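The aim of this short unit is practical: by the end, you should be able to scan a pair of folded records and say something sensible about each. We start with the first protein, listed as its amino acid sequence and then its structure tokens.
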Amino acid sequence: MRKEDEPVDQDCEILAEKVYTQHNSHSPAEVIVEAVAEAADADPLELAPMHDFIDPDAVNNLFSGTGTNTDGQYLSFRFDEWMVSVHADGIVRVRDVLYPIEI
């Protein structure tokens, strides 16, 4: 899926983009927190807990690659003032929903 195919908040600026893989030591939930921290220019420990917005275990289970066909899976959710999109191909994008791109 290309960036322009994303249906949610595509008119908002991407502030952080990270990639998780099944072969690295970070879970999808950890990569999401790192990406949001980068977008917020904050330490991950300064953020509100991820579980206040979405179940991190559910995210990890959905994108762990251990389920059946994960091709095309896509999840988008609000994390405080950020819109997070997670793709089955490992791409995590964080957008600032408060400041859309001027067209």
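Turning to the second protein, read its sequence before its tokens, just as you did above.
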Amino acid sequence: MKFTFTQDQQKKEEMKTTLLNTLVPTYMEKFSKITLLPCYKPGPYLFGFKITYADILLANVLDTIETALDSEILNSYPVMKSLKDSVFEIPSIKTYAESRPAFVSL
């Protein structure tokens, strides 16, 4: 996230606002539409009941967005929230997430 390295606080806030109001909603809507693809299979993960690297990667991105920008942001995107929650409920991932270093505040 480019704005994390910006020293100018006003510019940083403008960039964060753009992220929250433009980029994040655009991509959340696109990712949420995965359930409309012909290859989609109902289940907790992108392609059904088997987890893939894509699920883990996307869940990590979603967790970072929640932690860094807005803890309530995924409430507007239930498909993405469900995916993230499903991935983070896997015992080994849950254990790691609970023991990893805290996220540094932006």
